[in-house]
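Q: Got a minute? One more chain.
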Amino acid sequence: MIKSIYPESYDIARAGDDITIDVFCNDSARRSEERVQLIQKIEKRQQIFRSKLEEWTAKGCPVTFKLESEQKHQTSPKKVGKITKPKNSRTKYEFHEKHLLSDLPLLERIKLKQASKKVNILRDQKQDALDSKMVPIYNVIYEQSPKFENSKTVSLSVTRLQQLVRDSMTLPVSESDVRKVLHQLAKKLGLRVTVIGEIQVLKIPKLNRNEDLAKLGSYQTEVE
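A: Always. Here it is, folded:
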């Protein structure tokens, strides 16, 4: 049981109804050493607490209150006031052990936290990779869009778009990435993707490149 801890001294995070505690250290070897030291400190404090608790219980020292009688003696003779009992319940001052829902030991919770961090990092890296393709794929779509006011909407199959993207980009890009970016662009710019039979078709109206790039400002990696 840990009653209190300095948040600036340890890496504290909440995982559902559980709380994980880790050390601040980037070096993996030193981090493992500091974790062992942290666990040893916790176990030592637990042993001290149990020893003090057993000693306190053996002496028969229950939590008692004599506030009412003490207040009667301390009441000012110049002013007769009503003696009131303290509002704080005695249970507030009694020892309460904090039960965690998780039965995992501290080291296991630390490992789970580290694994969760790795998953989040990989997910963020994957999303960053998709974001970096947003503007280049938009440029391909823009090149296929009609350029005159009265021009009809251009229909472009997603399969054809994937081929155009692969031909235009210097770095390899998978079909699944093109589809994901395309659906993000359609959502952000109001483009329509329809299904004809088993073929997905992108409906491309006349585009305003400046306005569209402003909407995609945080994803721009290149400016023409």
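A: Residues 67-73, 95-101 have pLDDT under 50 and may be disordered.
Q: Perfect, thanks.
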